[in-house]
Write a structure and sequence with these properties.
single chain, globular, 74% helix, 14 helices, mainly alpha, 309 residues
Amino acid sequence: MTTATVGRRRREGAQLSERARAEDSLGRKLVAPAVVLMLLVTAFPIVRALYLSLFNYSLTAPDDRAFVGIANYVTALTDPLFWRATAVTVGIMIITVAVELVVGFVFAMVMHRVIFARGIVRTSILIPYGIITVISGFAWQFAFSSTNGFINGWLPGVDDGFNWFGQFGSAVSAIMISEIWKTTPFMSLLLLAGLAQVSEDMLEAAKVDGATWWQRLYKVILPNMRAAIMVAVLFRALDAYRIFDNIFVMTAGAVNTESISFLTYRQVIEQFQLGMGSALSVLLFLSVLLVAFILVKAFKVDLAQARQG
């Protein structure tokens, strides 16, 4: 390698580095107004919740507020009810996101490959996501009703009077089905954006080399969609971890179906325990951050490199 070649490559590397720094600086300037606005809107509630969580504070006796330090956190973390709600929340998150990822990918492939009536197909798939969650929850509650629902009549081997909401397993299953039906289109929409980034030339080259459809999927499509898959799973996992609407509508937390969000709601709204409710909301916030950290580390995606690619 000649000295001229080495010098040219160093200059090219310096130019790329300067370009990357310029893009990074521009990106920071573009997101700065949104970040400042979000901090102004969210900082006060977060700080306020953290402050109230240090007090034994009930709305029924506001003058008897007493500073208890981390006692509310100790009470929550040593209460089996909190860990049961955490287990329910994590279970719903893992199962629903896993199913939505598979089904959403199938829908994304259909929307990406369909030629005729593409607009109608995409609109039809995305309809459930446009329905308000509360309305969707009421619809599925009616569908699973033991008296006038139609699910029991459709499933072979299920008694017409079977009460889906009378026991934990079936009640959680009904909740997860309603979640999957409602939010799979969102997952498919994000995955569709990732499929659009997969080079058709690479797929054709793999096909010419004799790769089967499964080999093209595993070796070409999925590796090039890793960033899109991470974003889709991250968004849906964080949303599923904060599940509240469907539980509130379909079971109201009965038969041990409480999530962390619903447990927080009961402490604040039903029992007027603002201090304990604030502690639970802080724990929910911290656990959401932990889930996000774990997912980002698990996927090991360099978003800057993916953007340049």
